[in-house]
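hey can u check if this looks right to u? its 210 residues, i copy pasted from the old doc so theres a chance i mangled smth
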Amino acid sequence: MSALSARSLERRFLLLTSTRWLQVGVVFGLTILLALQRGLSIAEVGVLLSVQGFVVLALELPSGSLADSLGRRPVLLLAAIAAIAATVLVVIATDFVGFALALLVQGVFRALDSGPLEAWFVDALGPDVAPARVARSLGRGSTVLGASIAVGSAGGGLLVWVGPRSGPGPARPPVPRRPRDRDRPPHPAGRPGGRAARPARSTSTAGSIG
């Protein structure tokens, strides 16, 4: 394989890596904030993330065997379908069970997506490319992965900060306002710290001595 073809494959690999992980960075924090806004507690959100982690752990090896038997591209396509389904489930979820189902499907997506892209890239390079070149390209892919998650997370947080909201939520709590003098309730003695006001003197002349 020529050096130009190797560079072209590397660019495709880095582009696919960035587009795959950028959206993960955008929606990861938003998923947690959405669950909190729809009534779930911090403990329930932690349980949901644990469910996703256990699903990925349980399906890591079977998904690798599936990629070896079906091929890299079909498994990547299945992972993309699972990602779309998980996103739809997160949007329509309103309780703990709904979010649990969404994160379970998201765990399936991440298990299917773990490894096939890198394996496709190595297979496409072929045996003629030096191992040092392959390792360098995979290292660049890891760098792009981390940068994509960071940029996506920052972008998602910015969208939450500047976007319209129907009411105060956990993403941006309202800033307490210092009460002004006209907002304070009237003091029972007339004015704060002062003495009680004297009654007005009567101006009636009834009963005066003529």
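Confidence is low (pLDDT under 50) at residues 168-175, 204-210.
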